[in-house]
Amino acid sequence: MESTRFSIGTKLSKEEIDRKWWEIGDFFRRNSLWMLMYCTGCCAIELPPAMTSAYDMERLGMGPMATPRQADVLLVTGYLSLKTLRRLIYTYEQMSEPKYVVGIGSCTINGGIYHDSHAVINQLDQYIPVDVYVAGCMPNTESVMNGFVDLMELIKNKKANGWKDYHERYEWYRQNQIDSLGEVRVHDEFHE
Amino acid sequence: MTNSMNNVEYVKTLVETNFSVVATDVVDQYQISFDVVPSDVHRVLSLLKSEGWIQLSYLSAVDWIDDNEMQLVYIVFNWEKPVHIQVRTRLDRDKPSMQSILPIYPGCKYYERECHEFFGVKFPGNPDYDKQLILEQWDDMPPMRKDFDPQAYSARKFPVRKYTNDFEQLEGQPSKQVKREARTERIIKIGKGGKK
Predict the structure, then answer these.
(1) Which residues in chain B are closer than 8 Å to A187, comparing Cβ atoms?
(2) Residues of B in contact with A121 (CB under 8 A)
(3) Between β-strands A73-77 and A34-38, what pairing exists: parallel, antiparallel or unpaired?
(4) Residue A37 — pLDDT band, cuts 50, 70, 90?
(5) Fewer CB under 10 Å: which end of chain B, C or N?
(6) Are residues A83 and B136 in contact, defined by beta-carbon separation less than 8 angstroms?
(7) A25 against A2, higher pLDDT
(8) Is a pLDDT exceeding 90 seen at residue B28?
(9) B58 inside 8 A of chain A by CB
(10) Pairwise CA distance, residues B75 & B116, whole Å
Protein backbone atom coordinates (compact mmCIF):
# COMPACT_ATOMS: atom_id res chain seq x y z
CA MET A 1 0.00 0.00 0.00
CA GLU A 2 1.27 3.39 -0.95
CA SER A 3 1.97 5.90 1.77
CA THR A 4 -0.40 8.85 2.03
CA ARG A 5 2.37 11.07 3.32
CA PHE A 6 3.64 13.77 0.99
CA SER A 7 6.54 12.61 -1.07
CA ILE A 8 8.32 14.04 -4.04
CA GLY A 9 7.39 12.04 -7.10
CA THR A 10 10.59 12.35 -9.02
CA LYS A 11 14.03 12.56 -7.62
CA LEU A 12 15.36 16.12 -8.09
CA SER A 13 18.97 16.74 -8.94
CA LYS A 14 21.11 18.92 -6.71
CA GLU A 15 20.96 21.82 -9.18
CA GLU A 16 17.20 21.73 -9.27
CA ILE A 17 16.98 21.71 -5.50
CA ASP A 18 19.45 24.60 -5.32
CA ARG A 19 17.43 26.53 -7.84
CA LYS A 20 14.25 26.01 -5.86
CA TRP A 21 15.93 27.20 -2.68
CA TRP A 22 17.21 30.24 -4.53
CA GLU A 23 13.70 31.01 -5.76
CA ILE A 24 12.39 30.79 -2.22
CA GLY A 25 15.26 32.92 -1.00
CA ASP A 26 14.70 35.48 -3.73
CA PHE A 27 11.01 35.68 -2.86
CA PHE A 28 11.76 36.64 0.72
CA ARG A 29 14.73 38.76 -0.20
CA ARG A 30 12.91 40.93 -2.69
CA ASN A 31 10.13 41.57 -0.20
CA SER A 32 12.49 42.65 2.55
CA LEU A 33 15.28 44.65 0.98
CA TRP A 34 17.62 46.39 3.35
CA MET A 35 19.25 49.39 1.82
CA LEU A 36 22.61 50.87 2.49
CA MET A 37 22.34 54.48 1.44
CA TYR A 38 25.63 55.83 0.21
CA CYS A 39 24.39 59.37 -0.06
CA THR A 40 27.20 60.90 -2.05
CA GLY A 41 25.42 63.57 -4.00
CA CYS A 42 22.41 65.81 -4.18
CA CYS A 43 19.97 63.06 -5.30
CA ALA A 44 20.02 61.85 -1.70
CA ILE A 45 17.46 64.56 -1.00
CA GLU A 46 14.91 62.37 -2.79
CA LEU A 47 15.25 59.66 -0.17
CA PRO A 48 13.65 61.39 2.85
CA PRO A 49 10.25 61.72 1.09
CA ALA A 50 10.62 58.19 -0.26
CA MET A 51 11.30 56.78 3.18
CA THR A 52 8.91 58.80 5.29
CA SER A 53 5.12 58.99 5.22
CA ALA A 54 4.88 60.76 1.85
CA TYR A 55 5.77 57.67 -0.19
CA ASP A 56 6.44 55.22 2.61
CA MET A 57 9.10 52.85 1.37
CA GLU A 58 8.28 50.49 4.19
CA ARG A 59 5.22 49.27 2.31
CA LEU A 60 7.59 47.75 -0.26
CA GLY A 61 9.33 46.04 2.60
CA MET A 62 12.38 48.24 2.28
CA GLY A 63 14.21 49.74 5.15
CA PRO A 64 17.48 51.44 5.93
CA MET A 65 20.40 49.43 7.21
CA ALA A 66 23.33 50.86 9.07
CA THR A 67 26.11 48.49 8.09
CA PRO A 68 27.22 47.16 4.71
CA ARG A 69 27.54 43.60 5.91
CA GLN A 70 23.83 43.30 6.64
CA ALA A 71 22.54 45.25 3.66
CA ASP A 72 21.16 43.90 0.37
CA VAL A 73 20.97 47.02 -1.76
CA LEU A 74 23.61 49.67 -2.20
CA LEU A 75 22.13 52.99 -3.21
CA VAL A 76 24.52 55.34 -4.94
CA THR A 77 22.81 58.67 -5.08
CA GLY A 78 24.68 61.01 -7.32
CA TYR A 79 28.20 61.95 -8.30
CA LEU A 80 31.20 60.09 -7.01
CA SER A 81 34.53 61.74 -6.53
CA LEU A 82 37.64 59.60 -6.73
CA LYS A 83 37.95 59.77 -2.97
CA THR A 84 34.38 58.55 -2.51
CA LEU A 85 34.76 55.84 -5.13
CA ARG A 86 37.55 54.21 -3.11
CA ARG A 87 35.29 54.03 -0.07
CA LEU A 88 32.41 52.84 -2.23
CA ILE A 89 34.43 49.92 -3.56
CA TYR A 90 35.41 49.06 0.01
CA THR A 91 31.75 49.17 0.99
CA TYR A 92 30.57 47.15 -1.98
CA GLU A 93 33.09 44.42 -1.37
CA GLN A 94 32.12 44.26 2.30
CA MET A 95 28.48 43.56 1.51
CA SER A 96 27.34 39.97 1.74
CA GLU A 97 25.97 38.29 -1.35
CA PRO A 98 23.59 38.49 -3.08
CA LYS A 99 23.94 42.25 -3.36
CA TYR A 100 22.37 44.76 -5.69
CA VAL A 101 23.33 48.27 -6.71
CA VAL A 102 20.93 51.07 -7.64
CA GLY A 103 22.43 54.12 -9.30
CA ILE A 104 20.32 57.24 -8.88
CA GLY A 105 20.72 60.36 -10.99
CA SER A 106 22.41 61.09 -14.27
CA CYS A 107 25.82 61.50 -12.61
CA THR A 108 26.10 57.75 -12.11
CA ILE A 109 25.09 57.13 -15.73
CA ASN A 110 27.31 59.46 -17.71
CA GLY A 111 28.74 62.04 -15.36
CA GLY A 112 25.81 64.42 -15.60
CA ILE A 113 26.74 68.05 -15.11
CA TYR A 114 30.11 66.92 -13.74
CA HIS A 115 31.15 65.19 -16.97
CA ASP A 116 34.20 67.45 -17.34
CA SER A 117 35.30 67.56 -13.73
CA HIS A 118 38.78 66.45 -12.72
CA ALA A 119 37.49 65.00 -9.45
CA VAL A 120 34.33 63.13 -10.46
CA ILE A 121 34.03 59.86 -12.36
CA ASN A 122 31.73 59.56 -15.35
CA GLN A 123 30.34 56.05 -15.34
CA LEU A 124 29.66 54.04 -12.25
CA ASP A 125 29.21 50.70 -14.03
CA GLN A 126 32.85 50.68 -15.08
CA TYR A 127 33.89 50.16 -11.47
CA ILE A 128 31.10 48.18 -9.83
CA PRO A 129 28.14 46.44 -11.52
CA VAL A 130 24.89 48.39 -11.44
CA ASP A 131 21.55 46.58 -11.60
CA VAL A 132 19.11 49.47 -11.88
CA TYR A 133 19.59 53.04 -12.99
CA VAL A 134 17.16 55.81 -12.16
CA ALA A 135 17.71 58.57 -14.67
CA GLY A 136 17.10 62.23 -14.01
CA CYS A 137 18.83 65.24 -12.60
CA MET A 138 17.47 64.77 -10.08
CA PRO A 139 14.83 62.05 -10.52
CA ASN A 140 11.57 62.72 -8.76
CA THR A 141 10.51 60.51 -5.91
CA GLU A 142 8.07 58.51 -8.04
CA SER A 143 10.91 57.44 -10.31
CA VAL A 144 13.04 56.50 -7.35
CA MET A 145 10.25 54.31 -6.00
CA ASN A 146 9.71 52.93 -9.48
CA GLY A 147 13.39 52.05 -9.61
CA PHE A 148 13.00 49.98 -6.46
CA VAL A 149 9.99 48.17 -7.90
CA ASP A 150 12.03 47.51 -11.04
CA LEU A 151 14.78 46.04 -8.90
CA MET A 152 12.28 43.70 -7.26
CA GLU A 153 11.05 42.61 -10.68
CA LEU A 154 14.61 41.97 -11.77
CA ILE A 155 15.28 39.85 -8.72
CA LYS A 156 12.07 37.93 -9.41
CA ASN A 157 13.09 37.32 -13.04
CA LYS A 158 16.64 36.36 -11.99
CA LYS A 159 18.11 39.27 -13.92
CA ALA A 160 19.70 41.19 -11.08
CA ASN A 161 23.00 39.41 -11.58
CA GLY A 162 25.43 42.26 -11.08
CA TRP A 163 27.15 40.57 -8.15
CA LYS A 164 27.73 37.42 -10.24
CA ASP A 165 29.10 39.60 -13.01
CA TYR A 166 31.51 41.11 -10.51
CA HIS A 167 32.86 37.62 -9.85
CA GLU A 168 33.07 36.63 -13.49
CA ARG A 169 34.59 39.82 -14.83
CA TYR A 170 36.49 40.83 -11.72
CA GLU A 171 39.70 41.41 -13.68
CA TRP A 172 37.95 43.87 -15.98
CA TYR A 173 36.41 45.83 -13.10
CA ARG A 174 39.67 45.75 -11.24
CA GLN A 175 41.57 47.10 -14.24
CA ASN A 176 39.09 49.97 -14.64
CA GLN A 177 39.39 50.80 -10.96
CA ILE A 178 43.16 50.89 -11.21
CA ASP A 179 43.12 52.93 -14.43
CA SER A 180 41.04 55.68 -12.87
CA LEU A 181 42.13 55.54 -9.25
CA GLY A 182 45.73 54.47 -9.47
CA GLU A 183 45.35 52.43 -6.32
CA VAL A 184 42.11 51.39 -4.69
CA ARG A 185 43.62 51.13 -1.24
CA VAL A 186 43.02 54.18 0.91
CA HIS A 187 46.10 55.99 2.12
CA ASP A 188 45.34 58.86 4.43
CA GLU A 189 46.55 60.11 7.74
CA PHE A 190 43.74 58.34 9.61
CA HIS A 191 44.60 54.92 8.23
CA GLU A 192 48.35 54.99 8.63
CA MET B 1 33.70 102.07 18.45
CA THR B 2 30.08 101.76 17.51
CA ASN B 3 30.08 103.20 14.05
CA SER B 4 31.33 100.53 11.69
CA MET B 5 32.71 103.00 9.11
CA ASN B 6 35.01 104.23 11.86
CA ASN B 7 36.25 100.66 12.21
CA VAL B 8 37.34 100.60 8.59
CA GLU B 9 38.98 104.01 8.92
CA TYR B 10 40.74 102.82 12.05
CA VAL B 11 42.18 99.77 10.31
CA LYS B 12 43.15 101.79 7.26
CA THR B 13 45.11 104.33 9.33
CA LEU B 14 46.62 101.61 11.46
CA VAL B 15 48.03 99.62 8.58
CA GLU B 16 48.94 102.50 6.27
CA THR B 17 50.94 104.36 8.92
CA ASN B 18 52.94 101.29 9.86
CA PHE B 19 53.58 99.72 6.46
CA SER B 20 54.09 100.76 2.88
CA VAL B 21 50.93 99.30 1.40
CA VAL B 22 50.87 98.73 -2.36
CA ALA B 23 47.12 99.28 -2.65
CA THR B 24 44.18 99.65 -0.31
CA ASP B 25 40.65 98.84 -1.29
CA VAL B 26 37.70 99.71 0.94
CA VAL B 27 34.98 97.40 -0.33
CA ASP B 28 32.26 98.53 2.04
CA GLN B 29 31.86 99.31 5.72
CA TYR B 30 32.58 95.70 6.65
CA GLN B 31 35.40 94.82 4.29
CA ILE B 32 38.80 96.21 3.50
CA SER B 33 41.78 94.80 1.67
CA PHE B 34 45.47 95.61 1.69
CA ASP B 35 47.97 94.61 -0.97
CA VAL B 36 51.38 94.25 0.63
CA VAL B 37 54.76 92.91 -0.39
CA PRO B 38 55.44 89.29 0.71
CA SER B 39 58.01 90.29 3.31
CA ASP B 40 55.44 92.46 5.13
CA VAL B 41 52.72 89.82 5.45
CA HIS B 42 53.85 88.38 8.76
CA ARG B 43 54.24 91.75 10.41
CA VAL B 44 50.87 92.99 9.12
CA LEU B 45 49.13 89.86 10.37
CA SER B 46 50.89 90.05 13.76
CA LEU B 47 49.80 93.64 14.15
CA LEU B 48 46.21 92.82 13.17
CA LYS B 49 46.11 89.88 15.54
CA SER B 50 47.30 92.01 18.44
CA GLU B 51 44.59 94.53 17.54
CA GLY B 52 41.85 91.93 17.86
CA TRP B 53 41.65 90.26 14.44
CA ILE B 54 42.21 86.93 16.11
CA GLN B 55 40.57 84.59 13.64
CA LEU B 56 42.01 83.51 10.31
CA SER B 57 38.83 82.96 8.32
CA TYR B 58 40.43 81.75 5.15
CA LEU B 59 43.66 81.53 3.27
CA SER B 60 43.69 80.81 -0.41
CA ALA B 61 45.26 81.84 -3.66
CA VAL B 62 44.32 83.46 -6.95
CA ASP B 63 46.13 82.47 -10.12
CA TRP B 64 46.94 85.51 -12.27
CA ILE B 65 48.28 83.63 -15.23
CA ASP B 66 48.65 86.67 -17.51
CA ASP B 67 50.83 88.50 -14.97
CA ASN B 68 52.67 85.25 -14.16
CA GLU B 69 51.85 85.84 -10.52
CA MET B 70 50.17 83.91 -7.76
CA GLN B 71 48.25 85.99 -5.27
CA LEU B 72 47.78 84.81 -1.71
CA VAL B 73 44.77 86.12 0.17
CA TYR B 74 44.59 85.97 3.96
CA ILE B 75 41.18 86.85 5.40
CA VAL B 76 41.13 87.72 9.08
CA PHE B 77 38.14 88.44 11.23
CA ASN B 78 37.51 90.29 14.46
CA TRP B 79 34.77 89.29 16.87
CA GLU B 80 34.57 92.74 18.45
CA LYS B 81 34.67 95.01 15.42
CA PRO B 82 32.76 93.82 12.36
CA VAL B 83 35.44 94.16 9.70
CA HIS B 84 36.83 91.46 7.45
CA ILE B 85 40.36 92.27 6.41
CA GLN B 86 41.95 90.75 3.36
CA VAL B 87 45.71 90.81 3.28
CA ARG B 88 46.87 90.09 -0.24
CA THR B 89 50.31 89.51 -1.58
CA ARG B 90 51.67 88.51 -4.95
CA LEU B 91 54.25 85.78 -5.49
CA ASP B 92 56.17 84.59 -8.49
CA ARG B 93 54.01 82.03 -10.28
CA ASP B 94 56.79 79.72 -11.38
CA LYS B 95 58.07 78.93 -7.90
CA PRO B 96 55.47 80.22 -5.46
CA SER B 97 56.73 79.94 -1.92
CA MET B 98 55.68 81.73 1.25
CA GLN B 99 56.89 81.36 4.79
CA SER B 100 54.15 79.74 6.86
CA ILE B 101 52.12 81.87 9.30
CA LEU B 102 51.79 78.94 11.69
CA PRO B 103 53.28 80.87 14.68
CA ILE B 104 50.74 83.67 14.24
CA TYR B 105 47.59 81.74 13.31
CA PRO B 106 47.92 77.99 14.12
CA GLY B 107 44.66 77.41 12.26
CA CYS B 108 46.41 78.07 8.98
CA LYS B 109 47.80 74.53 9.05
CA TYR B 110 45.04 73.03 6.92
CA TYR B 111 44.48 76.09 4.74
CA GLU B 112 48.11 75.98 3.75
CA ARG B 113 47.87 72.29 2.93
CA GLU B 114 44.82 72.94 0.83
CA CYS B 115 46.48 75.84 -0.92
CA HIS B 116 49.52 73.74 -1.68
CA GLU B 117 47.36 70.96 -3.05
CA PHE B 118 45.22 73.11 -5.32
CA PHE B 119 47.67 75.84 -6.34
CA GLY B 120 51.12 74.41 -5.69
CA VAL B 121 52.22 77.17 -3.32
CA LYS B 122 54.90 75.98 -0.92
CA PHE B 123 54.78 76.95 2.74
CA PRO B 124 58.12 76.28 4.41
CA GLY B 125 57.70 76.43 8.19
CA ASN B 126 54.56 74.31 8.11
CA PRO B 127 55.76 70.73 8.66
CA ASP B 128 52.82 69.13 6.83
CA TYR B 129 52.23 71.55 3.99
CA ASP B 130 52.97 68.99 1.26
CA LYS B 131 50.79 66.21 2.70
CA GLN B 132 47.66 65.36 0.77
CA LEU B 133 44.48 66.76 2.23
CA ILE B 134 41.52 66.61 -0.14
CA LEU B 135 42.73 65.02 -3.36
CA GLU B 136 44.04 61.52 -2.94
CA GLN B 137 47.03 60.29 -4.91
CA TRP B 138 46.86 63.20 -7.30
CA ASP B 139 49.05 62.64 -10.33
CA ASP B 140 48.88 65.88 -12.28
CA MET B 141 49.56 69.59 -11.84
CA PRO B 142 47.62 71.38 -9.09
CA PRO B 143 44.06 71.44 -10.44
CA MET B 144 43.05 75.01 -9.59
CA ARG B 145 45.80 76.52 -11.68
CA LYS B 146 44.44 78.27 -14.72
CA ASP B 147 46.48 76.22 -17.19
CA PHE B 148 45.07 72.94 -15.90
CA ASP B 149 42.46 71.51 -18.25
CA PRO B 150 39.87 69.53 -16.26
CA GLN B 151 38.07 68.34 -19.38
CA ALA B 152 41.22 66.80 -20.85
CA TYR B 153 42.02 65.21 -17.50
CA SER B 154 38.51 63.78 -17.23
CA ALA B 155 38.65 62.46 -20.79
CA ARG B 156 41.98 60.80 -20.11
CA LYS B 157 41.12 59.21 -16.79
CA PHE B 158 37.41 58.44 -16.84
CA PRO B 159 35.76 56.43 -19.64
CA VAL B 160 32.88 58.19 -21.36
CA ARG B 161 29.65 56.40 -22.14
CA LYS B 162 29.11 55.81 -25.85
CA TYR B 163 25.63 56.42 -27.18
CA THR B 164 24.42 54.97 -30.45
CA ASN B 165 21.88 56.77 -32.62
CA ASP B 166 19.57 53.80 -32.87
CA PHE B 167 16.33 55.72 -32.31
CA GLU B 168 13.53 55.63 -34.81
CA GLN B 169 11.84 58.59 -36.41
CA LEU B 170 8.07 58.52 -36.21
CA GLU B 171 6.25 58.45 -39.50
CA GLY B 172 5.40 61.83 -40.96
CA GLN B 173 7.31 63.78 -38.36
CA PRO B 174 10.22 66.03 -39.29
CA SER B 175 13.62 65.27 -37.86
CA LYS B 176 14.56 67.27 -34.81
CA GLN B 177 18.26 66.76 -35.44
CA VAL B 178 18.82 70.28 -36.87
CA LYS B 179 16.99 71.87 -33.97
CA ARG B 180 18.95 69.78 -31.51
CA GLU B 181 22.28 70.71 -33.04
CA ALA B 182 21.38 74.40 -33.02
CA ARG B 183 20.49 74.13 -29.36
CA THR B 184 23.78 72.42 -28.52
CA GLU B 185 25.67 75.12 -30.40
CA ARG B 186 23.82 77.81 -28.47
CA ILE B 187 24.61 76.15 -25.15
CA ILE B 188 28.30 75.97 -26.01
CA LYS B 189 28.22 79.62 -27.09
CA ILE B 190 26.63 80.69 -23.82
CA GLY B 191 29.16 78.59 -21.94
CA LYS B 192 31.98 80.52 -23.56
CA GLY B 193 30.47 83.85 -22.61
CA GLY B 194 28.98 84.65 -26.01
CA LYS B 195 32.27 84.25 -27.89
CA LYS B 196 32.69 81.79 -30.73
Answers:
(1) 136-137
(2) 158
(3) parallel
(4) confident
(5) C
(6) yes
(7) A25
(8) no
(9) no
(10) 17
Q: CA A90 to CA A101: how far, in whole Å?
A: 14
Residues of B in contact with A188 (CB under 8 A): 132, 136
State yes or no: pLDDT of A184 exceeds 90. no
What pLDDT, in 10s, does the model give residues B50-76?
988 999 999 999 999 899 999 999 999
Task: Give contacts of B159 with chain A, Cβ < 8 Å.
Answer: 122-123, 126, 176, 180
**Percent of chain A that is helix, strand, coil (3-state, to 5):** 50, 10, 40
Mean pLDDT computed over B108-131: 90
Q: In the predicted model, what is the mean pLDDT of residues A69-79?
A: 91
Residues of chain A in Cβ contact (below 8 Å) with chain B: 82-83, 86, 109-111, 115-123, 126, 176, 179-183, 186-189
Q: What is the dihedral of CA A105, A106, A107, A109, to 10 degrees?
A: 110
Q: How far apart are CA A122 and CA A140, in angstroms?
A: 21
Q: CB-CB: which of B131, B140, B159 is closest to A126?
A: B159
Q: Tell me the C-alpha distance between A140 and A105, whole Å.
A: 10
The C-alpha angle A180, A181, A187, rounded to 5 degrees, equals 175
pLDDT score at B57: 92
Q: Which of A126, A176, A188 lies at the smallest CB-CB distance from B136? A: A188
B1-26 pLDDT tens trace? 456 668 888 888 888 888 888 888 88
Our CA-based measurement puts residue A45 at a distance from the nearest CA of chain B, in whole angstroms, of 24
Helix axes A14-30, A141-156, angle to 10 degrees: 160
The model's pTM: 0.81
Please choose, from the candidates A129, A131, A123, the residue with its C-alpha nearest in 3D space to the C-alpha of residue A169.
Answer: A129
